[in-house]
Amino acid sequence: MLLGGSGRASGSAGRRRAWRLLLAALGAVSLAVPAAAEAGQGLEPTLGLQLAQASSVSAATRAEYDRTFQAVLRDPGNLDLTFRFAELAVEVGDLEGAIGALERLLVFNPDLPRVRLELGVLYYRLGSHQAAKAYLEQALAAPNAPAEVRERVRPLIAEIDRSLTTSHFFGAVQLGTRYQTDANAATATGNVKLFGLDATLSSEFLKQHDSNGFIVGNLGYIYDLGNQAGDAIESNLRLVATRQFRLTSLDLGFLEADVGPRFHPFERMPGLSLRPYAVGGAVTLGEALYYKGGGGGLSLDTPLTRALAVNLDGEGRARWFHNTASRSTSTDKNGPETVGRLTARYALSPVAAVVAAFEFVRDASQADNERNNQYGVTVAYNRQFSAPFRLTRLPWSFSLNAGRVWREYAGPDSSVDPDVTRHDREWSVGGSLTAGLFGRWSATLQVQQQWVNSALVNFAYRNSAVSLALGYAF
Description:
Strand order of the largest sheet: 2-5-6-7-8-9-10-11-12-13-14-15-16-17
Largest sheet: 14 strands, antiparallel, barrel
Structural class: alpha+beta
Radius of gyration: 26 Å
Strand content: 35-45%
Helix content: 25-40%
Number of strands: 17
């Protein structure tokens, strides 16, 4: 049997394929934006900041710290010894001791812009932003300040200026291209099910490779409420737009915004924050509105130890889908969606971390064959390192990730197979490399491999993807 481009079966398959493409596209590009933002904005990992984030301190380090402290007391004019003590003090968490040691270095030799840079970072870590800014400005004004010191100081001062204001904007944008071996998420063989019978798809519905150009943007605004707890109102705007080179019906547009306060409710747990928020957005596919929705959520962030931080998110939203000539039954997916997510981040070292996440999604679409529960597990390893061969002064980073997804549907689709209820099993692995270029610019290379198996052959496919993007963070 040869299937054409019309009819409920092909329309239903196309609608589900569009939904999978939407999720895959959003997932792929979302990995790249945080990497660009980390490489281009905020406090760069200077000596002080790196050591202050160390996950654990060995007994040998603590012993060396004690010995060096006694040695400095005996020989306070030894600059090399004092600087070594400052390094160890930061590593064991004695930021005040490190500040004292570095300030003594300036008494003996005021002409040390690198030391002033480190003092600026340490004072920032302690929350003394005015003192931090003073030291950084002194480092920048020093006639003998090396170029790399000046390059690192400028974004730090800008970060402090933003923190001293009651409100500020921040964000990141990426512009790039992406190639996929199965851009339409279709089977390669064309053997499918139609009303329970074996059928063969026409060539236009088979697996097709394609490339696209994309732009991804994140824009945030924080308004400080001015209380001692550090409470604020946060707003975020996210944008994704892709344009396919061949399969223009898969052109994607995504716009979403959220707003809500962030509270720090417990004085004895200053790192714990709670954020309720409202969220809304819309998606276009092939230049036509695909769906719109809105709702709210609650986010809880808390550090459990110096090395371990946990984030818990819950969100619910209503969704309204829109039919088109090529997606005539999209409204079958109308209904609420509920998402729960638990993420844990463990710092292995000052520059390396492991992230693990568990996600549950309840899709309560009105049609049984669309309604499903999804369970997902993701693990990732992130590491920052100096640019190889000193290609750039800014650090580089790479990430490796793997994920597993289970989807269980509520009932069969009679147009595909009335006797089989769909369930999917998905594996994905990937990696990314982000190179800090200069200032707030970065470049990101990302590769991803996806395997989707299903109880219904219609929904099984394999896809390889590679993307390259240029990013700017502010």
